[in-house]
Design goal:
The chain is built from four helices and seven strands, in the order αββααββαβββ. By secondary structure, it is of the alpha+beta class. The chain folds into two domains: 26-99, Defensin A-like, CATH 3.30.30.170; 104-135, no CATH class. The strands form two sheets. It has a four-stranded antiparallel β-sheet, covered by helices on one side. A three-stranded antiparallel β-sheet has the order 5-6-7, with no helix packed on it. The N and C termini lie far apart (62 Å). 19% of the residues are buried.
């Protein structure tokens, strides 16, 4: 056998790798502006998708929007007028920083350790661990 034939037989023995596509999508904010407040009606859906508590997301949005935020009966109230596109971009930034793994791109992560303004994010899918700044 020559070299090319050996390569061909070796490639035939390799398993076929499937390209895995994720059906994960970041939820779109369902907002309503009432007077000087913005109401986020689907905070429960967003928190479930992120596998985080509603209070965690509220704390992040308080810091990012520089406005008081409260959660009552699975409804998030922001004491400022925020348009839907701005709120969606903040939620997307939250998912990219604190939910989706930077190594494998899957949302199967959790916080493990909080220490001195930083938190360790652990991916359950690939085992990657990295530190992100706490909010």
């Amino acid at each position: 056998m020559n070299y090319e034939q050996l390569l061909d037989s070796a490639f035939k023995e390799l398993p076929t790798l499937s390209i895995e596509k994720s059906d994960f999508q970041i939820p779109v904010a369902d907002t309503l502006i009432q007077g000087s407040k913005t109401i986020l009606k689907n905070i429960e859906q967003i928190a479930d998708k992120a596998r985080r508590s509603e209070d965690d997301i509220a704390k992040y949005l308080t810091k990012e929007l520089a406005a008081p935020v409260s959660v009552n009966n699975h409804v998030l109230e922001i004491n400022a007028k925020i348009n839907a596109s701005s709120l969606n971009s903040k939620i997307e930034a939250y998912f990219k920083t604190y939910v989706i793994c930077k190594e494998c791109g899957k949302p199967d992560t959790h916080f493990e350790q909080r220490d001195r303004g930083y938190v360790t994010l652990v991916c359950e899918a690939c085992g990657a661990r990295y530190t992100v700044k706490s909010y």
